[in-house]
């Protein structure tokens, strides 16, 4: 087994040295392989996971009754929290699956994979003598993935509070060819001209919004199309990373009081109580009451 692993490692290193511009080799190979293989396998056949740690497993795989819309990779159990939980730390594979170990494994390999891929994009640009704008743009989804799958569970103290990682991915294709030729003919690698008509695009956006809101310069348009989503995703990742630690910028809990400290009820208080009510009803077996509705002292059970 170890001999075979050693041979595979040598093959990867030699292949990486011989073909340096292929991004999915070397340091990324194992993480990406685990991630690409682990996601569909988990999504299809994973057993139910005790996400709330209260012995009420939640099924998310296709094999257990979900479809491609309702299916998801169920996050690691609250009982595990943010602890490192590889398969060899569990007493059995069944326990590891029951506690949602595959989700944490997928998160770790995903983050390692996208980080290494960003480095490989920089390397590819460097070797081709290009400016590294591709890796700069790719840093936005890297930051978003890190915020959602690492920073947020750190702030909440558990992987169970991370969003469900569904495997449904949608994509769209803008056709630049006729019905009589392949869609792949719409772009030739290294072509100098754009795959769209800047005049038609300028006229369309000018009518869609107003005349001067459109770009008649392709460089300005390209910069806007690149910078707008990248900067937006950067700030979104920053917001997620901030709220992960419950750093509430606005807190309307009993925000208006008189000189004696008595609460003057406002609509903000009503909205706040409604939020608390929804919080109580959500997963009511796991969270009977939020902290600010819980009793100060537990009632005596000894009579």
Automatic annotation (TrEMBL):
It is a multi-pass membrane protein. The chain crosses the membrane at residues 133-154, 223-245. One of its GO terms (cellular component) is photosystem II. It comes from the Eukaryota. GO terms for molecular function: chlorophyll binding; metal ion binding; oxidoreductase activity. Pfam families: Photo_RC. Keywords: Acetylation, Chlorophyll, Chromophore, Electron transport, Iron, Magnesium, Membrane, Metal-binding, Oxidoreductase, Phosphoprotein, Photosynthesis, Photosystem II, Plastid, Transmembrane, Transmembrane helix, Transport. Its main location: membrane. It is found in: Membrane. InterPro entries: D1/D2, Photo_II_D1/D2_sf, Photo_RC_L/M. GO terms for biological process: photosynthetic electron transport in photosystem II. SUPFAM superfamilies: Bacterial photosystem II reaction centre, L and M subunits. Belongs to the reaction center PufL/M/PsbA/D family. This is Photosystem II protein D1. It comes from Chenopodium quinoa (Quinoa).
């Amino acid at each position: 087994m170890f001999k075979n692993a050693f041979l595979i490692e040598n093959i990867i290193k030699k292949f990486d040295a011989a073909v340096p511009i292929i991004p999915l080799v070397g340091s990324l190979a194992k993480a990406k392989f685990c991630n690409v293989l682990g996601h569909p396998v988990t999504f299809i056949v994973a057993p139910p996971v005790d996400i709330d740690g209260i012995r009420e497993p939640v099924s998310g795989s296709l094999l257990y009754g979900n479809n491609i819309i309702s299916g998801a990779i169920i996050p690691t159990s609250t009982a595990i929290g943010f602890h490192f939980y590889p398969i060899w730390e569990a007493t059995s594979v069944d326990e590891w699956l029951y506690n949602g170990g595959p989700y944490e494994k997928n998160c770790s390999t995903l983050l390692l994979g996208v980080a290494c891929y960003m480095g490989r994009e920089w390397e590819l640009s460097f070797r081709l003598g290009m400016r590294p704008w591709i890796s700069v743009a790719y840093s936005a989804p890297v930051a978003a993935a890190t915020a959602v799958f690492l920073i947020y569970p750190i702030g909440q103290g558990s992987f169970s509070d991370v969003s469900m990682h569904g495997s449904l991915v949608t994509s769209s294709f803008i056709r630049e060819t006729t019905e009589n030729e392949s869609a792949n003919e719409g772009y030739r690698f290294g072509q100098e001209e754009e795959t769209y008509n800047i005049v038609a695009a300028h006229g369309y956006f000018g009518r869609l919004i107003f005349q001067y809101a459109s770009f008649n310069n392709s460089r300005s348009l390209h910069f806007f199309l690149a910078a707008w989503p990248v900067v937006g995703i950067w700030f979104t990742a920053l917001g997620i990373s901030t709220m992960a630690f419950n750093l509430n910028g606005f807190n309307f809990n009993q925000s208006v009081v008189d000189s004696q400290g008595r609460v003057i009820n406002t609509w903000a208080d009503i909205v706040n109580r409604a939020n608390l009510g929804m919080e109580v009803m959500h997963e009511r077996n796991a969270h009977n009451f939020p902290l600010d509705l819980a009793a100060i002292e537990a009632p005596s059970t000894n009579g």
